[in-house]
Amino acid sequence: MKPKISLITLGVHDLKRAIQFYRDGLGLPEHETDSDEVAFFKMEGAWLSLFPRTSLAKDIGIADDSKGGFSGITLAHNVASQDAVDQVLEQAIAAGAELIKPAEKVFWGGYSGYFRDPEGHYWEVAYNPFMDLT
């Protein structure tokens, strides 16, 4: 696995308010997308993504329940191919991670899966054919 975090996704309760805060309040440059259900901000080193919290939990395949330990934050490691997604997930599992969602083609047109590290943090491993985040 390349030592890089490509994307940090914050699960937010009010997407419109969060976009205004990060774009208008903090001045982060928003990346244009065809969706009003997610926002991306290109930053130095990694991108910041805002996504409704319930949708983020649903994408992982878990309940949005703070008692269950979901912080509302995921880290993403983007790779250059679908095969690389499978390889990184296998490496993480071999190292002691728990496979949460096997890699699959996803609704936004990419390919991704999720694992949880031994401390309970959720990582998405993704191939995105529309945005080069590698």
TrEMBL record:
Organism, scientific name: Vreelandella nanhaiensis
Domain VOC stretches: 4-128
Protein name (database record): VOC family protein
InterPro entries: Glyas_Bleomycin-R_OHBP_Dase, Glyas_Fos-R_dOase_dom, VOC_core
